[in-house]
Here is the input.
Amino acid sequence: MRGADSYDDGVRFGELSKLLPVLMVVSMIVFLYVEYVLLHGLRLLQLDVPEVVRDKAEFRRGVGELIAFHVITGMLLYCFMRCCLTLPGSIPDGQGWELRTESEEGEPSTGDMKRASLTEKKTTGERRHCKWCLKYKPDRTHHCRICNTCVIRMDHHCPWVYNCIGFRNHKYFILLLIYTAVDLLFIVASMFESVWWSTRTDVGPAIMLNLILAEAFACFLAVINWLFLGFHFWLTIKAMTTLEFCEKSMKQSGYNSSMFQRGWYQDICCVLGPNPLLWLLPCSLPTGDGLNWT
Here is the structure.
């Protein structure tokens, strides 16, 4: 039986076909980065003309926009890597969570299972358990058949980061959406001038088409990402996960959206951490163990 927070990384990253969505995300980031820096940023910097004839205002604006773009993109890439590499958290070994055999049935006398106050139970009133991991399930825990492990406070399995989103990496996922939304909005707003410039001056058709394509692609991704971010923000203030929302929508369980709610402020703290000043930074992760949700 594997440890609580261990995957078989050799097998996980050996499935190249499942890495294709991750490679698609990386390709889109590289495409927009190259288009923005080479076609928009370098145009404003005017490095192809002597310094004495450069437009100083455009040069300063180009420097400022490139610095802001690289800061936001750097935060985006950091959260993307943490989403991919941070284990979401699993049921701990020992401490009374192992599923007992018929001859060993009975309440565990020590450990976290004794301290846990479980709300989610089977229709028979028994504790939920995983038939694959052979462990009792804490509240809000689900088994991911792709990762082949039970994930505590599982939100969903995200193929774009090739990882489950759970208790330990949920903040990185939300910040990834936020940084992506801000980055795309910044690209759309600042690069529009270069698109307009390309249609009003004598430039090559390849440059004009590339600028228009990059602007349209960024707009398309921005709309999708902002909608996705809005959905996950709504889930956060409702103290729901994506799986819990789907189960409720499909009427597969009696989940009540207020079951784990403690007010919007505490619900946000459960995802973004206890310090509001650090909510938008990839630090100060949520407190707790992901096993108890009283």
About this structure: The longest helix spans residues 205-237. The chain is about 50% helix and 5% strand.
